[in-house]
Design goal:
The chain has about 90 residues and is α+β, with helices and mostly antiparallel strands. It has a domain of about 50 residues: Multidrug-efflux Transporter Regulator, Chain: A, Domain 2 (Orthogonal Bundle). The chain is about 40% helix and about 10% strand. A hairpin with a 2-residue loop joins strand 2 and strand 3. Helix 1 packs across helix 2. The chain is elongated and about 75 Å long.
């Protein structure tokens, strides 16, 4: 049984040490407190890494959203030319 420190788990999961502590407090990540330090089993860290539903859902591309709403993208050459007059 390999025990990892909070810092090692944070590096393994690519998250901050504060987030690891939050996961421990939420009981989402099993951990053992030895003295004043927390330790996580390697198997539990691997399970947390393979867990689904992490992070924000992917953002929809603007073009896809525009098509869905029935809008079309105007090409630069289709736009009317704007000429600026200098101030007098």
């Amino acid at each position: 049984m390999d025990l990892l420190s909070i810092k090692e788990v944070a590096e393994k999961l690519s998250i901050s040490t504060v987030r690891v502590l939050q996961l421990i407090q939420e009981n989402s990540l099993p951990a053992q407190k030895i003295g004043r330090d927390w330790f996580i089993r390697n198997e539990d860290a691997e399970a947390a890494r393979n867990r689904r539903g992490r992070g924000r859902p992917p953002k929809i591309k603007t073009e896809d959203k525009m098509e869905e709403m029935g809008w079309r993208k105007i090409k630069r050459e289709d736009r009317p030319a704007i000429t600026l007059k200098p101030k007098k």
